[in-house]
Amino acid sequence: MKKFFTPLFLATALLAGCSKTTPEPEPAEQAIGGYNVDKITESIKFANSSSELSESTNYPIKNMNGELSLRFDVAKVSANSVSVVLVQDTKPTSGAPRQRIDPFGTYELKKPDNGAAGLFDMYDGVTRVGSIGNSTILYEEQGSDKDSLGRQFTYTFRISGKKAN
Q1: Is residue 14 a part of any domain in this protein?
Q2: Residue 122 is part of which domain span?
Q3: Nearest Cα to 73, choosing from 61, 87, 63?
Q4: Position 55 in a domain
Q5: What is the DSSP track for 14-82?
Q6: Is 60 a domain residue?
Q7: What is the pTM of this model?
Q8: Averaged pLDDT score across all residues of the chain
Q9: pLDDT for residue 21 is more than 90
Q10: Is 94 within a domain?
Q11: pLDDT tens digits for range 57-109
């Protein structure tokens, strides 16, 4: 009986040791594509206040004058970096459609500390400017300033979107 199990054990160990794993695609390969913007949010928080003032706009915007939609186009620059362009499409009810293209920049992709699969933080130098992956994109800018009365505030600008099919 022992003679039967020894070769079976060795064969099983060899087969298990030879299993092939598919390497994870490069971060840029996982992030490239078009992302339809679904919301832009602007927020202000004064240093001496516990509340934050926010205003959001959902996209696309459709009304009797036409339609306005926004899209991020993300292209691979290298294995760990992407270029991001914001495309604005305006389709008026009368007149010709228009398109405006605004380059946002080139960003390095890094796995976040929590290591969520398929999600990457976007960095402009050492500054985190958002996240991309798992069919979503979030771009965020933050700054501080003082108003005309000298009160310190933080301003946050966020654009979120979902991968286009």
Answers
A1: no
A2: 27-163
A3: 87
A4: yes
A5: HHHHT---PPPPPHHHHH-EEEEEEEEEEEEEETT-S--EEEEEESSEEETTEEEEEEEEEEEEETTEE
A6: yes
A7: 0.81
A8: 88
A9: no
A10: yes
A11: 999 999 999 999 999 999 999 999 999 999 999 999 998 999 999 999 999 99
